[in-house]
Structures are given as structure tokens and as C-alpha cells.
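Action item from last meeting closed. Structure (179 res):
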């Protein structure tokens, strides 16, 4: 039997969920796992719906799209409203508490990615990297080392230090949430 995890990262355009998904898949591959990443975004450059789907598996991945997410990370209210119905019954729902104020269930992990990003880097735009670090720290789907290498490889030159600080903050906060 193989371990297979379906992850959906969702938000609005400009929040960086597609980049976060690409980095998550890259980190999984660096850890020796199979991974596939797909993305979907609205026609608007910023403000429209955006999602990135990642499947991580120790075996072959026959179908590259998320059918029922094991993990749903929502960076906006619209994303939570749109995608919660495709989360498995016992799936993990993680939301940015500064952006998502209504959730469809009570067993939700609320984390203030946006505030943590501002505290750590001075920039809201780093909330996606905080969320990515949080997800990795909490679930251990990818190692911190692989995640940091993927961040360095995939983020624009000159932003690596800022993004690594954001990931480190998220990872520490996620580890604190582990049972």
C-alpha cells in the first residue's frame, strides 16, 4: 500500500497559492517522493479565484488532479466557501484566520498567516510562505530541509531570505500545533 495525500491550496489571485503548490511538490520530490502539481486561476490577474493542487505519494500517481482533498488550506473566504465540500470527511481544514471568518465545520485549524508574515518579514505577501511552512511543520509531508531548498530554487532572486524567514516562522507555528 502506498501513502497518497491530496492537498489543495486555495485563495485569490496575488496570494501566491500557485507558487506555494509548486514549491510543495518540488520539496516532496527532493524528499524522494512522487508528486504532481496542477493549478487553476480565474482570468483576473489579481483578486480572482486561484488554487493549486498537489498530490504526494510514495507510489505511482495515476490521476494528477485532486478529487477529495486530505488537506485544504484556504487563504481567503471565497476559497473556503468554494472548496470545503471537496474535503474528505476527516480531512484537515486549515484557514488564514485574518482572511477567513466563516468555516463550514468546527474542527478547523485557524492560523494567522498574514499577521505572522507581517511580524516576521514586514510584508503581507509572504503569507503564502508562512502557510506553506505551517503545513509542512504540522503534517511533516515534506522535510524542512527539502522545503527550504525548494524555496531557494523556486522563488525570485533577491527574495529568498525573506521567503526563508517566512517559511521558518510557519514551520515553527505548525510544529507547535502537532499533537
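Sequence:
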Amino acid at each position: 500500500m502506498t501513502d497518497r495525500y491530496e492537498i489543495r491550496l486555495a485563495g485569490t489571485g496575488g496570494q501566491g497559492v500557485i507558487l506555494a503548490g509548486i514549491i510543495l511538490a518540488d520539496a516532496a520530490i527532493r524528499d524522494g517522493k512522487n508528486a504532481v502539481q496542477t493549478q487553476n486561476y480565474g482570468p483576473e490577474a489579481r483578486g480572482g479565484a486561484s488554487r493549486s493542487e498537489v498530490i504526494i505519494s510514495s507510489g505511482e500517481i495515476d490521476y494528477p488532479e485532486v478529487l477529495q482533498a486530505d488537506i485544504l488550506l484556504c487563504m481567503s473566504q471565497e476559497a473556503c466557501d468554494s472548496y470545503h465540500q471537496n474535503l474528505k470527511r476527516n480531512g484537515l481544514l486549515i484557514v488564514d484566520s485574518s482572511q477567513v471568518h466563516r468555516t463550514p465545520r468546527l474542527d478547523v485549524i485557524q492560523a494567522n498567516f498574514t499577521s505572522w508574515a507581517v511580524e516576521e518579514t514586514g510584508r503581507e505577501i509572504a503569507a503564502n510562505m508562512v502557510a506553506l511552512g505551517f503545513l509542512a511543520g504540522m503534517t511533516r509531508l515534506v522535510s524542512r530541509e527539502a522545503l527550504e531548498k525548494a524555496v531557494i530554487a523556486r522563488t525570485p532572486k533577491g527574495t529568498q531570505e525573506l521567503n526563508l524567514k517566512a517559511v521558518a516562522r510557519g514551520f515553527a507555528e505548525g510544529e507547535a500545533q502537532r499533537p
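Note appended to the action item: The chain has a mean pLDDT of 94.
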